[in-house]
Amino acid sequence: MSNYIIRLEEQKDYRDVENLVRESFWNVYRPGCSEHYVIHVLRDDPAFVPELDFVMHLSVQENDPGDHSVAEQDGMLIGQNMFMKTVIEADDGREIPVLTMGPIGITPELKRKGYGKKLLDYCLEKATEMGFGAVLFEGNIGFYSHCGFDYASKFGIRYHDLREDADSSFFLCRELIPGYLDDVTGVYQTPQGYYVKDEDVEEFDKQFPPKEKKKLPGQLFD
Fold first, then answer.
1. Fewer Cβ neighbours under 10 Å: the N or C end of the chain?
2. Alpha carbon distance 12, 4 (integer Å)
């Protein structure tokens, strides 16, 4: 599969990316979604890592009549991912710098075709090159295990505000530097930028074409 381009997000991409995220997450975890507003807010958050803010396009080959060469240009936007800095508050009092990521989205018509893994593998490679030690976030182990993630509990990392006997199978981790978390146990902290108000989401959503909110089986929130 080589029919795609991954590059850094630019300001001109913002609304197209927000619309892609909205389409990708609509009615998935709740009626409607908030992820398109979350990404809008996170771009201005101090924890945002602009060097790890990527978009994925299908590639289109165009001929250059000047030198008869063929260049790859951006085609349809099909995916995006972003990262934020955060910390593990270790049980020994240290703060361990780590990354979290998302929302990560692929346009609905191209899900389960391998593009999500290609995008994530690329992003994690770039994060590793920048020297980050680990990535923790909430996700489905069924997919993310194929990209090297495991349950964070196996690393001794707990999710904040979660009872010790609660199911933490949604909370995943991958070391980017082998052994980075070997001597660490503690509590992961979600960056505050991910917490948005429902009324702010509703107001922001008015900027997009109307879509029907549906209560569907398997949604996590009302």
1. C
2. 19
Half-sphere exposure of 121 (CA within 13 A, CB side): 9
Residue 220 lies in a domain: no
Q: What's the average model confidence in pLDDT over 81-88?
A: 98
Residue 143 in tokens: 């997919």
Global confidence as pTM: 0.90
Helix 35-42, helix 14-25: angle, nearest 10: 150
Tokens representing residue 185 in the block: 């146990």
Residue 62 has pLDDT above 80, yes or no: no
Q: How many CB atoms lie within 10 A of CB 174?
A: 21
123 Cβ partners below 8 Å, 6+ apart?
Answer: 52, 54, 81, 83, 101
Total residue count of the chain as it appears in this document = 222
If one counts the domains in the chain, the total is 1
pLDDT tens string 159-181: 998 887 788 999 999 999 999 99
Q: Coil, strand, or helix at residue 85?
A: strand
